[in-house]
Write a structure and sequence with these properties.
homotrimer; mainly alpha; globular
Chain lengths: ~200, ~200, ~200
């Protein structure tokens, strides 16, 4: 009962891209925490699929997409392999995590809002689940890694606001039936750029 | 398929009251942890709605009430604003958290039991989910705030026992068809008073 | 819609056995953390039933078995009572936790795979949920106890690999329709023995 904004293949490609970049950030945190390769894979899967999993369980879309689409499941494992072999320069890690994370944030806050709205939730709740889709995986990642969720920390750069703006913008566009084709990129890019600006100027 | 113990408006008002007091306790913990206002709102929402969310996902009542009722969603934001502007005397915080929490505990252990029973669960499981409704939000709050769940700590006052008594009492009254009208107040007040006594005499 | 591999009573007995041994490990961790008897019961229930609860919510089997079967619910309480009265020699605890945990690991990775497969999931996802069933309770236990999940720690013995082997073996046997009767024991014992070997030789 998804709204038919795109051909399924475009939607799917966007999902895979978001999953990949979030998985990279999860695997990199595992490296910093000295977890082994299994821990890397778990954090990659949870960071990439956790937000969508929470959303799907809440809207009753079970089994969740994460457990019906092999591409969703295998992408974080690919990210794990890449991080495992290609992270020699530890000093580059922090910045890379940030940019990847920002891209995933922008994609997920919009796809999450769209899916929740397509399942009949009101606009406020759809946007809230869009936010939850975007930040939920990172919160689960931090809880599993036994860290204070970076989402809540006072000393961190603005993280939630870009996702809130992106989700709210997507909800508004849905409300006016205007979230089709290229318009889809508007809230995604808005959230992504806002996040990059927050990282640079904070 | 809820049991029709009350007019919907009375049930709803009780829910809102419980949500409000739990949200206050969540926002106050965020203040103590030096989270920013977004962190306060997240902890307020999670503390207030988390227990009910767990219950609704387990009994299959999706989307959960927290994602279909704007009043449930907005109340914790109101509590966040109040705490944000009115918490200048930090030394009063601990006591306020305790009393608010006790009231929410009493309300939620009963409403949770009633809702689970209304969805066809057995009395033991309904009472267990009543307990989970009452304490689940606080456990999620503590996990997000990266603290040992106060529910489990040896050095804390008795917290779970009042909720267990309230939930068990509610289940017994349901069993004998006697949980109507004023009788509803019996398990709520019992749990509330037991909790206040535990705080004072421990 | 469970696959009819066994008479219900055999399946049920295996489940109860796995629940019991996991509950023992949960209650013993609570002892080490100086939680009170309520905390012991909570950790016992969560460790024993948490993995299956996650699985059931994900496959949409609600209310989960943990909330419909009194035997599942009461077994962890029995384990709590046993640990409460019979754990005087603290030095024996670590080893006991390990052996009990290994047995539960072997049982749950197989029963979880079978149940998920019976609900129509693909073999890869069924095996993944088998793994989640086996290790999910322990992860929830560690999060509630405010510890780094032992599943992810570099310095711990191999824990996940035996469960992965057991779940994959069960999925393969399901694939070829060969997981009946005594064959059921093959993946269970394989995972159990692998785990014991990992504990001894690491």
């Amino acid at each position: 009962m998804l709204t038919d904004l795109f051909s399924p293949s475009v939607q799917h490609s966007l999902d895979i891209a978001g999953i990949f970049v979030f998985a990279i950030s999860g695997a990199l945190l595992a490296v910093r925490k000295n977890f082994d390769v299994f821990g890397m894979a778990v954090l990659a899967e949870v960071t990439a699929l956790g937000g969508g999993l929470i959303r799907d369980v809440i809207i009753g879309a079970v089994p969740p997409a994460a457990f019906t689409d092999l591409g969703y499941f295998l992408t974080p494992l690919l990210a794990t392999v890449i991080v495992f072999f290609l992270h020699p320069e530890v000093e580059r890690i922090t910045k890379a995590v940030g940019v990847f994370d920002a891209a995933g944030l922008g994609l997920f806050c919009v796809t999450g809002t769209v899916k929740a709205y397509g399942h009949g939730l009101g606009l406020v709740f759809a946007a809230t689940l869009g936010l939850a889709t975007a930040v939920g995986g990172g919160v689960l990642r931090d809880i599993l890694a036994h860290e204070v969720p970076s989402l809540l920390r006072w000393d961190r750069d603005l993280y939630a606001v870009p996702a809130m703006v992106g989700a709210a913008l997507a909800a508004l566009l849905l409300r006016f039936g205007a979230l089709d084709g290229l318009a889809y990129a508007v809230p995604v890019v808005t959230a992504f750029v806002l996040r990059l600006l927050a990282m640079r100027f904070h």
